[in-house]
Fold each of these.
Amino acid sequence: MYILSPITQAHYLSAMIVLVAATLAVLIDLVLRFRDYRKLLHLISVAGIVKFLGTITLVFLQVVALFYLITLLPGPVRLVVLLFSAFVILIQLSYWLTLSQFMTGTDLFLAVTVSGDHRVAAILSFFKPRVVLYTLPYMLILSVLMILVPPIDRPVFALRETFALSALPVVYLLVSNYVLFLHVPERSFHLNPLTSFVRSALHCKFENLREYHGPRDDLPPFSVSQRPLDNIIYVIDESVRGSNLSLNGYPRATTPFLQSLVTRGLLKNLGICVAAASFSHVSNAYLITGHNEFPDNAFRTDKNPTILDYAKKMGYETIYIDINQIYLYSLIKAAGDRPVRSLDRWMNDKSFKERHIDLETTKDLGVASVLSSLLNEGSGLFILVNKKGLHFNYRDRYPDDLASTIWKPVMAASQSIDPSEAGREKLVNTYDNGIRFQVDEFFRMFVSETTNQNYVMLYTSDHGQTLAEHGQVYTHMKPDKEIVDVPDFFVSGERYSKKRLLDCIASGIRVSHLNNFATLLDLMEVPDSLRVRPYDKSIFALTAEDNRERYYMSGSLHGSGDYVVRAIHTPPDQGWGMSRPVDNN
Ligand SMILES: [Zn+2]
């Protein structure tokens, strides 16, 4: 009763205003997103009705609690909150217009961990002007709420009183969101963009508390007598859709150089690979740790030794080239100034500046030339690369000259995705120009500048892109099957000492990201006694009978939030593994 005692008649009136404001806000949401609510009702079973109503009540009271907390704030702080709310509502509604949902915990996690460049690209791809109009009614209610409920005007007692009054709603928000975290999928029950945001933020916090933060498992003791003579490069490209490469049968000549490498016997193509996930950080987590179960609710991607650990153990010098700042980047940041286990050199944008390479101009060709010089200077290298590739906006991924603009018309520099036929034509043209430059020209430069011919490169992409094929206005981060369509192939030097391995790959195999880890271990000649996890088969061990179902996931890496696990079956649905070019050429 201590908390309730300061409630005077004025407070009672305020509470009533809060209740009305919260009801109105929820009604606005119902009107604005009516189709989503209708869809939600269809999904609910009779047995789920009680849980549904319970959750609705829980979330409605969250709106009340949040609004009540706002009324406790002093005048100037209210203005800041009002502006911040406008920002949050704009983002939430942009997400909803693009992806038919508010931000999930995973989206929020990405928004705060990726580089600024990716953030700007995401905002550009999501932003739609009408979202400003949709934000207005929410802002109107908040403003009226702040005007009708005057700030507490007794400065001496204000602080203590505010604290006492805010305790209950704060505790309620924490506890109710923890209940949602444990029991209710994220995609359901968003009555308000602000409380949904609070939920996602707390979801990230709860998830972080539950996650594994200890060291990775050690590899058994082992020592090699000498440094290997060969070099292994593992390139994880960004947003490259496998079926947009003419190497994989795409009707436009997007990769003529790669095809010439096939003729010269220097490229072994594995066809369309199924990516581990439709999110960059999830795919990278699986690719780098060899984990093979979805989702990762045992935190194996945080516990498994990395590919760098194995490379180091086998005597390779390990280098990580990261100009995309997606997955390992955040791990490296988390490690602070401490060295990352088994990593000898970490090269980022700064390292390129020191080498006087301007990545803004050279794009990924700067990476190709650094790779060549590293190989030409030494041997026994294991180099992991996170390229920038074709991350949206595609127009920024190739030079602004006639020679690089092969397919026209193209999108404007910072245009969002327009799924109409005319918009799609520009989208695909721009993307294909990007493939020609960021993939084909990358390899042309790398192969022509590399004199040390004892190397192998395993190349894939973290995930593909929708290219608005079915009218999508998002590029990835959803379970659509075209998003997990990625390339997978080897390029080897003319004097690669383990070429026999590549020559023995069975025909008719189907590959998945999950096969890449053991493949790299085979290339390093890691003995079985060192392999501490039951990894998926190496590409060298695959037969035409394996991988009849190739699984992937989309959403929350550790399964605490929204996620789905799907499969690409054999034979695949019609149209899978093919990309539809625009019609006129
Ligand atoms: Zn990505």
Amino acid sequence: MLKPILFLFALMPAATACHAGELASRPRIVLSPEAAQIHAAGLLFDGHNDLPWEIREKGNSSFDALDISMPQPLLHTDIPRLRQGGLKAQFWSVYVPAEHEKTGDAFLQTLHQISIVKAMIRRYPETFEAAATADDIERIVLSGKVASMMGIEGGYSIENELSNLQRLFDEGCRYMTLTHSRSLRWADSSGDEPVAHGLSDFGEEVVREMNRLGMLVDLSHVSQETMKAALAVTRAPVLFSHSSARAICDHPRNVPDEILPLVSKNGGVVMVNFYSAFIVPTEQLKNDKEARGTLHNVVDHIDHLVAVAGVDHVGIGSDFDGVPRLPEQLESVASYPLITQELLNRGYDTASIHKILGGNILRVLRRAEDVAKLIQQE
Ligand SMILES: [Zn+2]
């Protein structure tokens, strides 16, 4: 049987043969009953999903136009696939573009995005329920629904008013990403020139007020200087709601190794983003900017973060419906169980898998609630 195989390889162009070689060493992942059971027994809590923005853009802010109880091939997220993926809890992003800082309506537009999430929960009450606390999340998950919290993406949403933080907290927002793609006067973006060189005095006040409220400080999108400044000020654990490992993919949106020990010390969590441009290794991206990568690449990021930060400080922050390109075998919310499968394949025990799926972010949230109570008593 040697000859026919040699013949087949002879027919393949060099690039294809190379690709075939990689596929041979990194096989497609197939879900086993054991992994499916471990996945179902865990509490998958995703740090970032941009469905509300997609509903606004592609569905005119209406669930009549985009009814997610039906399969929606234009989206990464719909209810049938959420169920298949075993999602238990979600931070829905109430992102509005950074341009709204200039037009002066960022806060109002954020309230509009919040209204989309609330409309979703009202329209599909058998699927979603709003959660205000970590205890809420556990109760809602037990009832079989997807526990829903919101995350603000971009500090311009508060329009330089601390009182707006309280308003957004009262609406159900439980984290705020300090910046998006542009630097603010009080915090720097990883995608822009620094202005504050970390945090301004007001930026520090924002972090302290978030601690007081029990709103998590999200360090995705911010510059390395701002990561360090926020980690120095915060009394509660932080999260990176959707960022991967800079050591594997050298993109400014990813978390550098030198920050990871600070995250461990802080008790926080880095929730891995699935976007191909953040997960495909640097060298491979140099040759092919459009490279998609595979689910294996995403689990490489998880492995790296576990090795450097520890298994208590890693989570899942897909960025579904917020990115244009996703790895093979991670094309939608239906794919999550394959992550559990690959973690199992790499020797992770059930307890560690459950921490990564959601146990860690739930711990972070609960700790932030405790810190808020302490501060409010001071
Ligand atoms: Zn983002």
